[in-house]
Write a structure and sequence with these properties.
Elements: H1 6-16, H2 21-32, H3 45-60, E1 63-69, E2 76-82, H4 83-91, E3 98-101, E4 104-107, H5 111-120, H6 123-133, E5 135-137, H7 146-159, E6 165-170, E7 177-182, H8 184-210, H9 214-219, H10 222-233
Antiparallel strand pairs: 1-2, 3-4, 4-5, 6-7
């Protein structure tokens, strides 16, 4: 997994800024490991999420600081996670390639499956279509009952523990408790976008003061560039 330079950050941000959030995470993984380009969309979701967490820790450090709004009172609720701890927690549980429920076999869902479902269906039918796409063997049920869907979802979740991570949250103002889905790809992209914006402001500041080009400003080491910025702002 290669390091991310200033120009790399801007190139990645520019390539991904118009993409769907799902595709931004896959793009980042392909940039980090070009040999994986073309295959990451077919990784099980847990493998993809673990790779995104490892990538965040490598590029930006393991600390994940985020916030959300309380669904009851709207209060800002902050939380902090460790990317390495989240990624390593799944290593303690054996991942499976496929699961069998009764007389039906299912493979683990991938990003390609999720993209297909999001493009074609609303929330009401998404779960049914996703599970049906992952059915490898066995008869198609006459009806996907709530109990059958729950059984398949629970079994797939156990087989791929990092496919979905849910956070238990508590509002300090009204004591409301709820859980929310943690999206590793969105966290990683937020860091990419934040870093890109800071770099572009740095380039703008140095260009205005010294007439340097973008490549000249980015070629400076971080410490030297920071010192020039400090002198400009002084």
């Amino acid at each position: 997994m290669r390091a991310l330079s200033g120009p790399d950050v801007l190139d990645l941000w520019e390539m991904g800024v118009s993409l769907h959030p799902l595709d931004r995470g896959l793009l980042a993984l392909s940039v980090a490991d070009p040999s994986a380009t073309g295959s990451v969309a077919d990784w099980p979701l847990g493998r993809r999420n673990r790779a995104l967490l490892d990538l965040h820790a490598s590029w930006f450090g393991p600390r994940l600081h985020g916030w959300t709004s309380c669904p009851s009172c709207g209060e800002k609720v902050e939380f902090e996670l460790d990317a390495r701890e989240l990624a390593s927690a799944a290593h303690d549980r054996q991942s499976q390639d496929a699961v069998t429920i009764g007389n039906r076999a299912f493979r683990l869902p991938t990003s390609r499956d999720v993209a297909h479902v999001l493009a074609r269906h609303g929330a009401a039918s998404a779960a049914t279509d996703l599970i049906d796409r992952c059915r490898l063997d066995g008869p198609e049920p006459a009806e996907w009952t709530a109990d059958l869907l729950e059984a398949v979802e629970d079994t797939l979740a156990s087989a791929d523990p990092l496919a979905e991570t849910r956070l238990a949250l508590n509002c300090p103002s009204c004591a409301r408790e709820w859980d929310d889905v943690f999206d590793a790809g969105r966290f990683l992209w937020a860091e990419v976008e934040s870093r890109a914006r800071r770099l572009l402001w740095d380039v703008h500041t140095l260009a205005s003061a010294y007439g340097w080009t973008e490549s000249e400003s980015l070629a400076l080491g971080d410490a030297r560039r920071a010192m020039y910025l400090e002198m400009v702002r002084a």
